Structure formats: structure tokens, C-alpha cells
Amino acid sequence: MSPPDAGPPRPARDDRPPSGIGRYIKVWFRFVPREGWLPYDTEGLWATRLSADTARVANVPFLQDGVAEGETVRFTTDADGVHWATGRVAASGNCTVRVLPVPDGPLGRDAHAVHERFAPFGLGGEVFSADFPLVALTVPGGADLGAIKALLIRGVAEGWWHFEVSCVTDAWRAA
């Protein structure tokens, strides 16, 4: 990730992942930063290249809304070889949920404690950093969405965390 005025860091020529089909590439997303939130306007996500201009997202987004792990996105490649997302081609059926532990709450700033609460559902995710323990979770469409939503709401009520759902499905809305 980069500060808003710098754009994405450019990989060194010899650090670029292979560009062949089935290989990982970094696909960059642009968005308008939210007031009072992290000061970024781009996020790079690893993706498996499917064709000359499509890739399947391979990790969970911390900042980009409306996309989840497993989605297929279309991209363009600029003159510097940077791949920029231009839209979603196919939904994955997954949701993206972001959970930020309340620093003075019962879990403190412990991202591991957040992961432990969601472990019974088999959810995978990532932590933004030790300094900012935002946990981004991929919620598969086949998971117990009602129970996960109930846990999220309980966590807010008990002062464990704040959360947002940044990529939803009809199944999530209906649960």
C-alpha cells in the first residue's frame, strides 16, 4: 500500500512475478480514501492470472470495497507493467468482513483473539499490521452466515470489536 500521492510501489524489474497464465500477479485497485480512515487510495492484491486481462483474487482486501477473495477481475496493464483493476468479471460467492479489536476492550489489540473467535467457522484472513490489528476475513458463501453475523453483532455488543462488511452477497443479506 502507498500514501495517497505516491501511487503503488513499482516492483524492481527482476522482482516481478512471472506473467504467464496460472501465475501470481499483483492487481492494483484505486479508490477514494475515506475520511478518518487509513490514508491510502490504492491497494494491491495478489491474483492468479487467468488470461491476458483477467485474474482471480488470491487474498482478502483490507481497503478495497466490493471485492472478495476468489473473485475474477479484469485489469489493464500500464506502460510500467502495473496491472490496474477495471472491474469484476465473476463473483466468488465469498464475503469480505473486516474486524478491528477495541484497544481498551476485553480482547485488547489482539488480532489472534479475533481469529480464535472465528476459528470454529473455518474462516481465513489476514492482519493489517501489529500496530493496526485490523483483521480481514474471507467468509465463504457456504459458511454458517447467520451464526457469523450473530458473532459479529455479539462482539460489538460486548465491546470486543468494530466491524464492517465490505463485500456482500445475497446469501449474506438473507442470513
User: From the alpha-carbon coordinates, what is the Rg to the nearest angstrom?
Assistant: 17 Å
* Low-pLDDT residue spans: 1-15
The strand count comes to 9
What's the SSE pattern?
EEEEEEHEEHEH
Strand percent estimate: 25-35%
Average pLDDT taken over every residue: 89
Helix content: 10-25%
> Could you give a short account of the major beta sheet?
5 strands, mixed, barrel
How far is the N terminus from the C terminus? 33 Å
Number of helices: 3
Shape: globular
Structural class: alpha+beta
Structure in words:
- With about 180 residues, this protein is α+β, with helices and mostly antiparallel strands.
- It is about 15% helix and about 30% strand.
- The protein has helices at about 110-120, 145-155, 170-175; strands at about 25-30, 40-50, 55, 70-75, 85-90, 95-100, 125, 135-140, 160-165.
- A 5-stranded mixed beta barrel has the order 1-2-3-4-5. Strands 7-8-6-9 form a 4-stranded antiparallel beta sheet, covered by helices on one side.
- β7 and β8 (about 135-140) form a beta hairpin.
- The protein starts with about 25 loop residues before the first strand and ends with a helix.
- The relative contact order is 0.15.
- Residues about 1-15 have low confidence and may be disordered.
